[in-house]
Structure formats: C-alpha cells, structure tokens
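Figure 3 (text version): structure tokens given as input.
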C-alpha cells in the first residue's frame, strides 16, 4: 500500500506539475485552482494548522476509515468535504495559482518529513489516526484529486 514518502512523493510532484489553471475536471464541481486550495487546507488541517468541524461517527471512525485507508477500493467521487476545507464555503479562496500550487508541493514534501515540526491533528471524519494512516490518507487524498484532473 502506498503512503506519502520518498518513493511516492516524486511521482505525486511530477503529476502535480502537470496541473494548470485550465485543467478540466473529469468529475466534481471544483476547478483546478479550487482543488489545489482544498488540498492545501486539508494538509494544513492534518498538520494542526487549520481547524475543521468534526463529523465522527462509529461508522466513519471504523468501517469507512478501514475501507478508505486499508483496501484497494478507489475513493468514491463526489463525497462532500467539511465546509472549512471547501474554498466555496469556509476554506481558503484561490489567489495566485502558481503560489498556491507551490505551497501544495511544499506541503507534500513537509508532511512525511522527519523530524516533524508539527503534530498530527484528529481527522474530521476518522478521528485519531496513526502516523501510517495519516501518510496513507495523504497519498490517497492527493492521488484522488490528481486523478480527478486526469493526472
């Protein structure tokens, strides 16, 4: 199972490099710039630099978490995000595409790094995650949205 780390980061960064403001989504309502802001906000949340409302249930903490992080099943399309991570609601609005994309590349490198200069937060749907689960989430979440744009 792939996680964020030395083997996957170059591939994700290469794929991210292919994203432009004009990239068209294959599904969903986010444009490329809003998706970059969403991923930036998501990594900021994971690194305890941003807050989001929680909706942790027995099903999401146990069943959905297991299916999402420990099985090869692709993540479903169109799952709603927390409002604080949605740039059309309470998330960070797009500003400069190149700067926002560079911030995402920096987050992808910082997130799996050692020593860590942050503490992992609670996931707003899954609750407390182990380091491995956070790194797995980081890879899968980034991969999901890059695939959304054909990358």
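Below: residues designed for each position.
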């Amino acid at each position: 199972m792939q996680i964020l780390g030395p083997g996957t980061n170059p591939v994700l960064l290469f794929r991210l490099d292919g994203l432009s403001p004009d990239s068209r989504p294959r599904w969903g309502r986010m444009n490329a710039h809003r998706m970059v802001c969403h991923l930036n906000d998501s990594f900021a949340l994971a690194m305890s630099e941003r807050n989001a409302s929680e909706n942790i249930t027995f099903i999401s903490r146990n069943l959905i978490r297991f299916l999402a992080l420990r099985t090869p099943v692709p993540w479903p399309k169109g799952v709603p995000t927390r409002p604080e991570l949605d740039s059309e609601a309470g998330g960070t609005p797009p500003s400069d595409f190149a700067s926002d994309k560079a911030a995402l590349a920096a987050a992808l490198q910082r997130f799996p790094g050692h020593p860590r200069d942050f503490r992992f937060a609670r996931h707003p749907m899954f609750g407390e995650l182990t380091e491995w689960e956070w790194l797995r989430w980081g890879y899968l979440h980034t991969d999901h949205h890059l695939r959304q744009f054909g990358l």
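Residues 9-148 form one domain.
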